Amino acid sequence: MSHVDPTKLPALDPADPAALDDLLSSDEKEIRGAVRQMLDQSVEPYIAEWFENGAIPNIRELTKEFGSLGLLGMHLEGYGCAGMTATEYGLACLELEASDSGLRSLVSVQGSLAMFAIWRWGSEEQKQQWLPGMAAGDLIGCFGLTEPDAGSDPGSMKTRARRDGSDWVLTGNKMWISNAPFADVAVVWAMTDEGVRGFIVPAGTPGFSAPEIKHKLSLRASATGELVLDEVRLPESAMLPEARGLKGPLACLNEARYGIVWGALGAARSSLDSARRYATERTQFGKPIGAFQLTQQKLADMTLEYVKGYLLAVHLGRRKDQDLLRPEQVSIGKLNNVREALEICRTARTILGANGISLEYPVIRHANNLESVLTYEGTVEMHTLVLGQVLTGEAAFR
């Protein structure tokens, strides 16, 4: 066994003590850096104000900026999409959520839900009509599956689509739909006589509206709305021809959940970095609070959970790039990384004390946002039962 001189080992970076950067290629680091540079210029100076005001005033300009960088549908091929790897997309999600979960939600809903639905299940004509504009950020999409009485059980949806001559007529309501208030197009899932089918509904179609949901204390920098479908008449060409049954929307949700596996780590990293810096600057009893054992334990525990979550995300990303990633494995990542990221944010808040609840720091904003991320795209309970079924062979959903 060769002897290693400790003095010649690479120095430890307190912001990356496990040297996680060594897992990434130069291309992956370059893409991550480009996303971070754009966010530092266009988002970071304003995000606390956007969160406090509950709106992004320049949302269309920001979406076009995302499009120009290739963030929208970035892991899809063709039609103006960037065609990046799953790991590169994951790194982008991490950086987006390090700024704010609402921004990662916007990109995720656009690319992994609305665009992916059309890309995977749509006709060539539908792809040509919608995807280039959505990839550029000129058109914003949303994804209508969740209903007031159908969340974890989408098969019980009440939205109906019936044939009327050569047309389809949709009636129903969708709830908690990100991007809905300003979306140009909605992918809506409805029950038909032949099972669940997907439809492309352009904004402005008679009978269609998307009122915004107000009074949120989470994801405030993300516009959320309801989709109201009151006898919305659509041509046959509005149906996604390749999607039949719940397989269609569930495949889209799996794409979005994969982005969350990475994104939640961004919120965790931002909070952990804030807590670590604060612990070196805040002095009590004559020395920085980072010199006290209990504070160091908190920082060590947060770092351990972040490192483990990052290793899991990279592993799942590599599997996805090899077309080996199963939905159950995405559930493992979503369940672990969001749960641990939320705990990191909560612990970071205790290190900052009263300052931890101020928007002068990002911690309480990330914690509030992750309360939504914890339960959307599959609740803790549902992903727990998915893993439970893997372990036992028994389905406990019903």
How would you describe what is shown here?
- There is one protein chain.
- A hairpin with a 2-residue loop joins β8 and β9.
- The model has no long low-confidence stretch (mean pLDDT 95).
- It is built from 11 helices and 9 strands.
- The protein is globular, with a radius of gyration of 22 Å.
- With 398 residues, the protein is an alpha+beta fold.
- Strands 2-3-7-6 form a 4-stranded antiparallel beta sheet, covered by helices on one side.
- 49% of the residues lie in helices and 14% in strands.
- The protein folds into 3 domains: 20-136, Acyl-CoA dehydrogenase/oxidase, N-terminal domain (Butyryl-Coa Dehydrogenase, subunit A, domain 1, Orthogonal Bundle); 141-238, Butyryl-CoA Dehydrogenase, subunit A, domain 2, CATH 2.40.110; 247-392, Butyryl-CoA Dehydrogenase, subunit A, domain 3 (Up-down Bundle).
- The chain has helices at residues 26-42, 47-53, 59-68, 86-99, 101-121, 124-136, 247-281, 293-321, 327-352, 363-373, 380-392, and strands at residues 141-144, 160-164, 167-178, 185-192, 195-202, 208-209, 224-235, 283-284, 287-288.
- α4 (86-99) packs antiparallel against α8 and α5 runs antiparallel to α6 (124-136).
- Pathway: Amino-acid metabolism; lysine degradation; Amino-acid metabolism; tryptophan metabolism.
- Its EC number is 1.3.8.6.
- Belongs to the acyl-CoA dehydrogenase family.
Comma- or semicolon-separated keywords:
single chain; 398 residues; alpha+beta; Butyryl-CoA Dehydrogenase, subunit A, domain 3; 4-stranded antiparallel beta sheet; 3-stranded mixed beta sheet
